[in-house]
Structure to design on (288 residues):
């Protein structure tokens, strides 16, 4: 049968496009070849097309409703099928009841089924993140983006993660590269899990801080790279970032604003994920 081979970092975007175009054959399991994924497809399209056998998914593994996994918690949107609890990797089911809100960027959830426990451990690119979905921000759909950033980092850099959350950018980079990372979050629960995750992942090069990044950075040196993952209001913090970036450094600004509104020296743009219908999160790479 036909398969479309893509690099793993392009996997999520490819999956969405194939679903939109009605080409992904969802009866079969996507093949994982290490750095590459092969998507089972129903007709020949442009791209790296291969002929191979795919494993047929059992009926209980195919659902006609959307859900997202954070650790062993399945997050559903509206309806769901209780049989998903038979899957070994699902311990609890929660339903999202609101959008990401407030300074801490937290979502509201209601309990649906399984064990009543919102703390879990999410695995991503060889790292483990302990978190409580009700107390902190975490989005598994940013996995590919975190990997992209980690790939850009060079050994020896000093990095600032201004809105670190439970540490998924910081910890992945710290594991992959020989760098020093200063990671700030204003949410005490995010800070608690950030410290836990530094411990769990045995990284010694991440330095956690609790507080407003505008205050904390005053005590810190200049940086080669600054990560600003706060898409709704990151632009308000650009002065802080520009004060702390080295002459040859780079700022990764995540924002829902259009290119025309970014009045800085943008050298590259990446579409990261959808934010709301018709609105996207973009990454603007900015030089001082
Ligand atoms: C969109 S989340 C990103 C978290 C993390 N980078 C991730 O990818 O999971 C933004 C985070 O910024 C934190 N935050 C908001 N305002 C802040 C501020 N002024 N200083 C430090 N952290 C802040 C929030 O608590 C939240 O955890």
């Amino acid at each position: 049968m036909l398969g479309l081979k893509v690099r793993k970092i392009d996997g999520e975007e490819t999956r969405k496009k194939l679903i939109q175009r009605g080409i992904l054959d969802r009866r079969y399991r996507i093949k994982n070849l290490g750095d590459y994924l092969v998507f089972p497809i129903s007709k020949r399209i442009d791209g790296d097309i291969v002929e191979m056998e795919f494993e047929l998914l059992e009926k209980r593994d195919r659902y006609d409703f959307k859900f997202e996994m954070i650790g062993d918690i399945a997050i559903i949107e509206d309806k769901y099928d209780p049989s998903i609890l038979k899957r070994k990797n699902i311990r609890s089911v929660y339903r999202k009841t609101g959008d990401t809100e407030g300074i801490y960027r937290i979502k509201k959830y209601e309990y649906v089924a399984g064990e009543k426990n919102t703390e879990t451990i999410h695995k991503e690119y060889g790292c483990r993140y302990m978190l409580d979905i009700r107390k902190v921000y975490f989005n598994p759909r940013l996995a590919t983006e975190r990997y992209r950033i980690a790939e850009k980092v060079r050994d020896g850099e000093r990095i600032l993660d201004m809105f670190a959350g439970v540490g998924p950018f910081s910890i992945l980079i710290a594991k992959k590269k020989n760098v020093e990372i200063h990671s700030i979050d204003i949410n005490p629960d995010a800070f608690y899990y950030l410290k836990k995750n530094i411990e769990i992942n045995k990284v010694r090069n991440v330095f956690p801080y609790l507080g407003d990044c505008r205050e904390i950075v005053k005590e810190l040196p200049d940086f080669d790279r600054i990560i600003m993952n706060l898409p709704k209001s990151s632009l308000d913090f650009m002065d802080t970032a520009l004060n702390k970036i080295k002459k040859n450094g780079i700022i990764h600004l995540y924002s829902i604003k259009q290119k025309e509104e970014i009045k800085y020296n943008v050298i590259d743009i990446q579409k990261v994920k959808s934010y709301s219908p018709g609105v996207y999160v973009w990454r603007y790479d900015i030089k001082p």
In short: The pocket of S-adenosylmethionine is lined by residues 103-105, 137-138, 142, 163-165, 168-169, 184-187, 190, 212-213, 229-230 (CB under 6 Å).
